[in-house]
Every structure is written in C-alpha cells, then in structure tokens.
Amino acid sequence: MSDRVVAEGSQLTIHFSLALRDGSVIDSNFDAKPATFALGDGNMLQGFERCLLGMREGQRESFVILPEHGFGQTNPNNVQVMPRTAFAADMELAEGLVVSFADAQKAELPGVITAFTAEQVTVDFNHPLAGQDIIFDVQIVSIGEES
Asked: Does the record carry Isomerase as a key word (predicted)?
C-alpha cells in the first residue's frame, strides 16, 4: 500500500459500489473502468467524500452511509396528489413509472407514480434512495496531485 493519503482536492481514481442493506447493488464500477474526479468537485455527495479522507492508495473499505449523509430522509411533503387530467389522456400509467416534470425554474424533476385512479395520480418526488442506508464499498486505485 502506498504512503499517499486522500486529502481535500486530491485527484482520485476509484472503484466503488453502492448497495442497499439487503445486498441489492445500485451501482458499481468494480468490473469496469474506475472513476476519476477531484475530491470536493461536486461529483460525489459530501457524506461519501468524507469517508475517503485519510484513505491510502490501494486501500479498500466499506462504509455505511446513513440517509442524512447520503440521499436524505424521505419527506412526505415531496409526495403530491395530482388530477389525472394533468397527464396526457392516452398516457398509460403504472406504479413505479418515472415521469419527468418541470420545476418552477423549468429544470427537469423526475417523479415516481406510486398510486393512481381514474381521478387522481400520486407522485413521489423524493430521491429513490431517500431514507435508505447505503453500503459504500470503495477502493482507492490512485491518488494524484491536489488541484
């Protein structure tokens, strides 16, 4: 293992996986090209970045990221009931269907249909991983110079 240690601004190349407590893998690049980024550049949530600080080149660790340090807690205010007429009449609705909406700034905002009737549709705008503990398995492939 190298003497190089991850610090703020380090250029990192990592292999990682994100999984739920039940073992379901959400994302992984262990069987693919590693990811390269600068620590603190906004490509990774702070809760994940904090785990990397102090790790050495070549080191592999697993961390449990709690919701408040990952994708947040589920917010009941992010679940909206909308009239069915807000959707195209020929749109085939299904529970679990992800629909794209525009927020007040016209940015894309995905929502998941959780229930629907002929009169109304319930849409959950929480991040799909909100409220979940995430198992973050990471290996530091290399540490470059700080940017």
From this structure: yes
Q: 24: buried, middle or exposed (CB in 10 Å: 19+, 13-18, 0-12)? A: exposed
The owner of tokens 């703020």 is 8
The answer to whether 64 touches 135, Cβ cutoff 8 Å, is yes
Distance CA 94, CA 82 (A): 15
Question: d(Cα 18, Cα 73) in Å, to the nearest integer?
Answer: 17
For the stretch 122-143, pLDDT in tens is 999 999 899 999 999 999 999 9
Question: Is the CB of residue 130 less than 8 Å from the CB of residue 26?
Answer: no
What CATH architecture does domain 11-71+130-143 belong to? Roll (3.10)
Query: How high is the mean pLDDT of the chain?
Result: 93
Domain boundaries for CATH 3.10.50.40 within the chain: 11-71+130-143
Residue ranges of the chain that CATH labels 2.40.10.330? 76-124
